[in-house]
Design brief:
Blueprint: E1 2-13, E2 16-27, H1 42-49, E3 57-62, E4 65-66, H2 71-75, H3 93-103, H4 108-121, H5 126-129, H6 136-142, H7 145-152
Antiparallel strand pairs: 1-2, 1-3, 3-4
Helix pairs in contact: 3-4
Length: about 150
């Protein structure tokens, strides 16, 4: 059973065709790489599959959910680790975690609580209580890209 199904996906930016009838089927447990030169539509495809952009035509389903009709269901089942490890590189760890929570439609209070839970889980809370040690936000900014991605997941 495919976890990603795409049929006839099309997207234009003005006169430029980014996707022209893309068909794709990815089975559960399958590794799939989307390769192509700059401007081939790779990012456009990923943005559509992650509900960040609407296709002009065609259908796309992720985990059995239509990305256009039920984006909230798709978002509840996916994760995305992009080239950049934070939505905002200027924000520290706590602020980024709260931002991610808000993007997932948590209330401000629940997003702050969840951020604290995650910081505790990763052992980053000690930086807050240590005498003139770096804040959690400063610690986050010094984490490796891999560690930042772990925090975001």
């Amino acid at each position: 059973m495919p976890v990603i199904e795409v049929h006839g996906l099309r997207k234009r930016y003005g006169d430029t065709a980014a996707l022209t009838g893309v068909d794709l089927s990815v089975g559960a447990g399958t590794l799939c790489a989307v390769l192509g030169p700059n401007g081939a539509g790779k990012t456009t495809l990923v943005r559509i599959l992650t509900t960040l952009l609407r296709a002009d035509a065609g259908t796309a389903r992720v985990g059995g959910h239509d990305v256009a009709r039920h984006p909230e269901r798709v978002r509840a089942h996916i994760g995305l680790a992009g080239q950049h490890t934070a939505v905002d590189e200027v924000l520290g760890g706590r602020q980024n975690l709260v931002l991610f929570g808000r993007l997932r439609r948590l209330s401000p209070a629940r997003a702050r609580l969840r951020a604290e839970e995650l910081l505790h889980r990763f052992g980053l809370t000690a930086a807050d209580v240590a005498l003139r040690r770096p804040t959690l936000d400063e610690v986050f900014l010094r984490l490796t890209a891999g560690s930042r991605q772990e925090v975001h997941q």
